[in-house]
Amino acid sequence: MQVRGMICRGLRLQWAAGLALAFTLPALAAAAAPAIATQTSLNVQTSDQSGHTQATAAISVNGIDGTPASGAVVLEDGSKQLAEVLLDANGQATAQVSLPAGGHALHAVYTGDAAHLKSSSITSNVSGQASSTPNFAITLAAVSPSSLPLTVTNGSSGTVAVTVVPEDNAALTAPMFVTLSCSGLPSLASCTFTPESLEILPTTPASCPSGSPPSACPPVSSMLIQTQRQGTTGALTPVPLGRKNSPVAWAILLPGVLGLGGLAWGTRRRKWLNRLMLVALLGLVTTLGTTACNPLYYYYNHGPTVTPSTPTGNFTITVTGQSTNGVTAITNSTTFVLTVQ
């Protein structure tokens, strides 16, 4: 009997171990599954826009298994970042940038995600036409956090340095002012530029060596993105209603009470005063009943208001600069990816 019991216990242990292994192995295999290699393609079309070259880059990223990738992709000119956009559900994205005069080596860099590896497209060589019409371009650099995509948590903020690079500004006959704005933010998030408007002079440089003073560099604005965290409005210290004295309330109630007393005394002589007193009493009761609309009354009886938070996810933010060269309006923009956690 003892031997048979030991055999049964051994069989049960083997069965339990096998069952646990059957559930564990698929999970381990899924966790250890290698990321899928990807292929990034880039197609660039150029067009003339008010005497300057506008480039439209169509980007597509797919895994070697044919499935579309997700995440962010960066359009670069050599080692210079021009724009950053999110891939859609089909693994495609479009970026538009303004190109100064000269040659440009454009390529797209996919930054990868949890299931896909990084990849880069082949280089597409394009040229920007020369022009004597003043223009500008916008470049971005992450400050805090220090890299793009810009990743922030609910309730925190992020900072991006926005540089306005002048083009053909030697032809300016008056200063050019560029006003900055942003779009594409999630709800309950905001952006602020300091300063909001940047000035370009005929002598403003288009670049500067590292460590140069601000006066020797293109103008820069600090862009602050602020998100909101879920919470409640600030708590108020309850005040006992019996001890709360309001001069305004006394200024309204005291004359009313005295007036009603006078009407009550006058009803002994005139019947119409009796009816007037009833109307006044009804008005007083109605006024006292409206105190439930008071914000303090609502707070004491319903508690503080819950404020929602900025939704999480990935968002393509567009930074736009608008100006005029004295003849036509100029609008240029670039994009980057904001991740809210």
Structure description:
- With 341 residues, this protein is α+β, with helices and mostly antiparallel strands.
- The chain is built from four helices and 19 strands.
- Strands 3, 4, 6, 7 and 8 form a five-stranded antiparallel sheet that branches. It has a five-stranded mixed sheet with strand order 10-19-18-12-14, with no helix packed on it.
- Strand 6 and strand 7 form a beta hairpin.
- The longest helix is centred in the N-terminal third of the chain and has 30 residues.
- It is extended, with a radius of gyration of 34 Å.
**Total beta strand runs:** 19
Largest sheet: 5 strands, antiparallel
* CATH class descriptor name of the largest domain: Mainly Beta
Through-space gap between termini: 62 Å
Report the CATH topology name of the largest domain: Immunoglobulin-like
Mean pLDDT: 81
Order of helices and strands: HEEEEEEEEEEEEEEEEHHHEEE
Pfam family, one: Big_3_5
Transmembrane segments: 248-266, 278-300
Protein name: Bacterial Ig-like domain-containing protein
InterPro entries: Big_3_5, Ig-like_fold
